[in-house]
Amino acid sequence: MRPITLFVLATAVAAMDSVVAAAPASAQATAVNLVHPGASVRIAAHDTVLDPTVRKSAEGEELVAVTFKPAAKPSLVLAPAKGGWSWPADGTLRLRVQNGMPWPVTLMIDVASASKHLTATVGIPPGPPQTVSVSLQATSPRAFGMQVGPPMPFDDSIVATSVDGAIDAHAVTSVTLSMPQPGAPQTLLFGKLDGVAGGDDLRHAYTAIVDRYGQYTRTTWPEKVATEDELKARANAAPDIAAPKGLDRYGGRTDLPAMQATGWFHAQKHGGRWWLVTPEGHAFFSLGVNAVNLTDGRTYVQGREYMFADPGAAKGPFGGAADSRSDQGSQRDNGMNHGRWWDVYANNVARSLGDKAEPAWRKRAVDRLKAWRFNTLGNWSDPAFADDHRIAYTVPILIQGDFNTVGTGFDYWGRMPDPFDPRFVKATEAAVANAAKGVRDDPWLLGYFADNELSWAGRGPQGRWALATGSLAQGPESPAKQAFLDYLKKTHGNAATFAKAWDVPVANWEQVAAKGFKAPDPNEAHPAIAADYIAFLKLYANQYFRTVAQTLKQADPHHLFLGGRLAVRTPEVEEASAAYADVTSINTYTDLPEHGFDVAAFRKMDKPVLITEFHFGSADRGPFGNGVAAVASEEERGKAYARFVDAAVASGVIVGTHWFQYVDQPVTGRILDGENAHIGLVGITDIPFEGFTRAVTDANARTGGGSGGAR
């Protein structure tokens, strides 16, 4: 390691902005040395002070200090005295910088060519000088097939993995260095800045980041392994946890008063709160885990072989091919999303359990889950677990077909199904029949989910109305639009009355029926718009949930309809789910359940809720992302889990919480959409995160997983 020299400067700075250097000269040179700027560059300071005193790093590198004052956006603007800098269009901006503070500092870089801008934000840690590298073309980790890029710095470099905007690199008119409203003076030291040819810096940031076990190569953590023997020993180690007591065979609590025993799982209110109830009649708080399967560790290798120590694994027994390209929101701007993939997790499971590992892996997974006091397999879990009858499980009903769909503008997993379309009814019947096959008489089945995270709303403040406006934008052949038109005609009578109520320039209903009708946003002057939208959204949601509920109860009258795993949602869809589903399932990624949905509304409706996705992630165990709900460290994950589950139990309406997910996502992103977060109970090597699982065990044990905690 090189010796580290920090320059901690006085915080008293001048109050006036200043122009540090200016001279009327042509600017043909492309490089700027802030230590010796010369006459060809203008340096303007706004709420900053540039100290021209030359300072030297431990290795003798010359730098000058810039102090950014507490202000909205203190900045230092570098510009050619005349003309513009001509940099390579496919090049890279490089800037030498050192943090003068004993804590990390955020630096924003704006490269401009006239009115065009290219922007990036990087974190500068304390330590020796580093080279900040910014591509002169927009980029993001999505372009490399993952949602979050590798952490910085590495090899004395800080590469901006996210760059927004576009410029004419041959005519750069300024570079602005700034900070986002510092609370106290912050000092950075700068040296040379230049635009250089080639994009090797960005590629280098992603080169050789995955070892042969699928682990990130540039750092270490307690669960990281170096050899196959180590992997095998740690993955096969049995959890050291006491056996649970006070539970029936399904995981129901025998320490609480018995409830109705129907032979099937059901929902029942007892003692002032809602419970799930086991087939034997005991209170059951569903502590579940999503995606307990062998297929979530797949990541694309083709096109980015340079990222992997063993790219040939994609052509071996744990490789395959797929194509994730689509017009869904989950794939927008996602690159490297097709071709050969490597199943990292399955490969590691085989290393620890040998060939044909599936049965042994399922036993190991269930043994772990029960030891950690989980009692339910959540959505996306291996259907083969149903044959083992050792733990409660859930089944998804995935409704697919050629029925009409409606776009909301969000459409993350696709457009909304049109439940008014008769073809949707037929598709629902087929999907329900397929889901119930072989499980309808199984008492271990907790229940069924319908679809997953449908786009019930759009983005932004007007997103609540997206299904209504999207339906009206369709042509007269759309069943959803026909249903809306029928409602409007019944409500308003004639087109003139409707036009006045909505303040729209239509003379007849044919104009409204025409494709491309632009529906207005609700406003105070015309309350009928919002009232009609709300009424239609209720019609839409009721039609969907009624269709699924009636079809499911005909095919399987025994088991619970667990709703639609709502993520993007409206009050109307929550009410419809509560009316037709036995339990409303909600996916929410918040610190507490009540910050993710209206608990009071469900108390008022007196209906049970199942949290079917939540998690807390951190970025200190390999994968670059820290999940949707991020915490600072691995230790904090366990604390956050306990707070969330305790609050769910205290709500009185929540009957279970399902963690997403069992295994960490691949460093380079899952093939579905590039997600690459540390959110698992186990790593990609199938080695449990011991500290986290012990905290989870203790929380689960006091919640409903039986007495006896981690030893």
From TrEMBL:
SUPFAM superfamilies: (Trans)glycosidases
InterPro entries per record: GH (IPR017853)
Biological source species: Luteibacter jiangsuensis
Highest taxon in the source lineage: Bacteria
Organismal lineage: Bacteria, Pseudomonadati, Pseudomonadota, Gammaproteobacteria, Lysobacterales
Signal peptide positions on this chain: 1-21
Protein name: Beta-galactosidase-like protein
UniProtKB keywords: Signal
